[in-house]
Amino acid sequence: MYASVPSAVLFCAEGHLIHVEVQVSAGLPGFSLVGLPDASIRESRDRARAAVTSSGHPWPKHKITVNLAPSGDRKAGSGLDLAIAIGVLAASEVIPAEEIGSLAFIGELGLDGSLRPVNGVAPMVGALGQRDVVVPIASAAEASIAALGRVRLVADLGELVDVLRGEAPWPDHDPARPPDDASTTVPDLADVRGQPIARHALEVAAAGGHHTLFIGPPGAGKTMLASRLPGLLPPLERARALEVTMVHSASGIPLPAGGLVRTPPFRAPHHSTSQTALVGGGSQIIRPGEVSIAHGGVLFMDELAEFAPSVLDGLRQPLESRSVQVIRTGIRAELPADFLLVAAMNPCPCGGGAPGSCLCGDAVLHRYARRVSGPLLDRFDLRVPVHRPAVDQLLANEPGENSATVAARVLAARHLAEARQGCLNSALPADRLDDVARLDAAGMALLRHELEHERLSGRGYHRIRRVARTIADLRGHSPPTVAEQDVAIALRFRATIARSQATGRVA
């Protein structure tokens, strides 16, 4: 007998429809699994057999052949367990084949027949079209995000078989769904004491989508500042929220109670992270990296100079194209990577502490500065010196401006940019700068001076103009001409890594 059961597998952050074809025929008892399965799928044979027998049904004493169609694509994961078990039961006439025609099945089986969740349920359900889909109870909210048909929840294989044989109704496992706008609590900017320049830089970064580098000694508050940035960003629109949710689901990251990720994500990989873990990839199975998990939010790289140079160079392409291209033999994948990069580093290896306390020589400073390549450094629109706050600022009881107040100004500036040019200022093409970010005479003279003294590259010149445009938008000034004061502030946010050994200050 023959049965075909729809299911899905995960490829990168996308679901792919799979038909599990099962044939039970005469011959010596055996189980053959074909269709380029990986090790986790090949192990499904043992899990499915144990689950079927634990549910009180016989395992066929015949030759069983399972084909995963299309056969030319590699498959991975344990989410096909349930489809394989149902296919075997249907092909051996334990379940009427007509009862599974409009259903799809996703889930991992326990040896006792229990149904367990798997990573990537949301994109896999999205690949199944209008079909009703059977998933574990724990995957209810995740499946409901992408399902076009009805989501059926079951606790174990025995319960499902009883339903498909007409011996029981569909169980009522539907949990009460909380609203999908549930948000994650993020730290408030009001907790930051002092740091007026760094706070302003955060506001500019959020309003224009500008990549930011904080340079300062340990304890100055760089990490504290970066962790407050998601609170200044607006909630994700539904289309972007769906993209982020799919990536998080594929990566096995727990989703919020409502299933949909509305709060911009914040990712902070350790400096020992490999290039594959940061950018994404793999040999046979392509997995999203941190840059894709941070899609729509913030990627924070603390101790930037401690990352391997090859890892840092891997950031250059995602920063420009806002996506990741992964190419392997016979495999080509594209992952989303539209994130806001915030990095932090010390001014020197020893940290630079108090003025005059640095013991690093010129050669050490030079080697340290070279750990961050010029092309990568040039991609930071804002390079902001951060100093330790004064004692009076630390002990002050008066909180600073809170995130909600700053976020309102950020949202207004974003609306100005979107209405004027259809994108954030950081994504503004160079050929449109003269139309929407034209400089006045004094501002042009200021930038000419920087270019003539080789303190700006061509890319840096364009980035200064985009930042100046954002600063003007935050002041509520939307005319096409950008004033000198906006250019001057943008240049102030362009510090170098080099530091004066005598003063301990960022140059």
Explain how this protein is built.
The longest helix has 19 residues, at 403-421. This protein folds into 2 domains: 2-164, Ribosomal Protein S5, domain 2; 189-420, P-loop containing nucleotide triphosphate hydrolases (Rossmann fold), CATH 3.40.50.300. It is built from 21 helices and 20 strands. The protein starts with a strand and ends in a 15-residue tail after the last helix. The protein is α/β, with parallel strands linked by helices and 507 residues long.
What tags apply to this protein structure?
507 residues; alpha/beta; Ribosomal Protein S5, domain 2; Rossmann fold; 2 domains; five-stranded parallel β-sheet; four-stranded mixed β-sheet; 20 strands; elongated; disordered C terminus
SSE topology:
Layout: E1 2-11, E2 14-25, E3 30-34, H1 39-42, H2 44-54, E4 63-69, H3 81-91, E5 103-105, E6 108-109, E7 115-116, H4 121-126, E8 132-136, H5 140-146, E9 151-154, H6 157-164, H7 196-208, E10 212-215, H8 222-227, H9 238-251, E11 266-267, H10 275-279, E12 280-281, E13 287-288, H11 290-293, E14 298-301, H12 309-313, H13 316-321, E15 323-328, E16 331-336, E17 340-345, H14 362-370, H15 374-377, E18 382-385, H16 391-395, H17 403-421, H18 433-436, E19 438-439, H19 441-452, H20 458-474, E20 481-482, H21 484-492
Parallel strand pairs: 3-4, 5-8, 8-9, 10-17, 10-18, 11-14, 14-17, 19-20
Antiparallel strand pairs: 1-2, 2-4, 6-7, 12-13, 15-16
Q: Looking at CATH, which topology of the largest domain would you report?
A: Rossmann fold
Per CATH, the class of the largest domain reads Alpha Beta
Distance between the termini: 78 Å
Our count of domains comes out at 2
Radius of gyration: 28 Å
Percentage of β-strand residues: 15-25%
Number of E-type strands? 20
Any idea what the CATH superfamily of the largest domain is called?
P-loop containing nucleotide triphosphate hydrolases
From the helix content, strand content and strand pairing, which structural class follows? Answer: alpha/beta
Give the biggest sheet: 5 strands, parallel
Q: What would you call the shape?
A: elongated
The average pLDDT score comes to: 90
The number of helical segments is 21
The CATH architecture classification of the largest domain is 3-Layer(aba) Sandwich
* Helix percent band: 25-40%
Give the strand line-up of the largest sheet.
Answer: 11-14-17-10-18
